[in-house]
Amino acid sequence: MVSANREMVVYCFDTLVAHYNSEEAPPAAFDDGLHPLFVTWKKIVNGGDPRLRGCIGTLEARNLISGFKDYALTSALRDRRFSPIQAKELPLLECTVSVLTDYETANHYLDWEVGKHGVIIEFTDPDYNTRRSATYLPDVAANEGWTKIEAIDSLMRKAGYNGVITEALRKRIQMTRYQSTLFTMHYSDYVSYVKETRGEAPCIVGAKPRNY
């Protein structure tokens, strides 16, 4: 099984740095394969808890190399919930890559474990008779301190449902659960890795150099 690893995160940082410099990123240093994947960017300000700056991926299998290249940029620059990440924010960023595995059809909306499973829900909006769907990665509910019901209700809102959430509606949810492997790296660790493996630190055109 393919697991998320350091080289995948390095490639995401490489891709973002290359974007700011209008150049090509160095080749990926991990094996290609077909897997669903996500890229998450968070920003650490004044030593506080990391704040989400972008998270986009695909629940369908993608080539890992092209997938991480695409979603590193999409999640950083085109997550509609946030303004695009600017080059000056790079030193404050951490990146997490997720490789999704073990898709299973759940028996009901509570048939999953917080911290272990990510969940995909699908249901029919009774107010508009439209299908809605949304997903949370395995770490979301645990990080938020949610119960299963709190996570499901939040997912229904994320899917765009604004009506009253009833137990009867929850029971009509179709759920797929999945697992994932993660790897997280802060920009400073990325810089150290690049120095060690390539002999020089990454440089952003027009940005002030920063010592680590």
Question: In sequence order, what are the helices and strands, one letter per element?
Answer: HEEHEEEHHHEH
Estimate the helix proportion, in percent.
25-40%
Low-pLDDT residue spans = none
As a percent range, the share of strand residues is 25-35%
Going across the major beta sheet, what is the strand order?
2-1-3-6-4-5
Overall shape: it is: elongated
Number of H/I helices: 6
Q: If you compute it from the alpha carbons, what radius of gyration comes out, rounded to the nearest whole angstrom?
A: 19 Å
Spatial gap, N to C terminus: 35 Å
Q: Give the structural class.
A: alpha+beta
Mean pLDDT: 95
Quick one: biggest sheet?
Answer: 6 strands, antiparallel
Strands, count: 6
Domain AMMECR1: 1-194
Organism: Quillaja saponaria (Soap bark tree)
Pfam family, one: AMMECR1
Protein name: AMMECR1 family
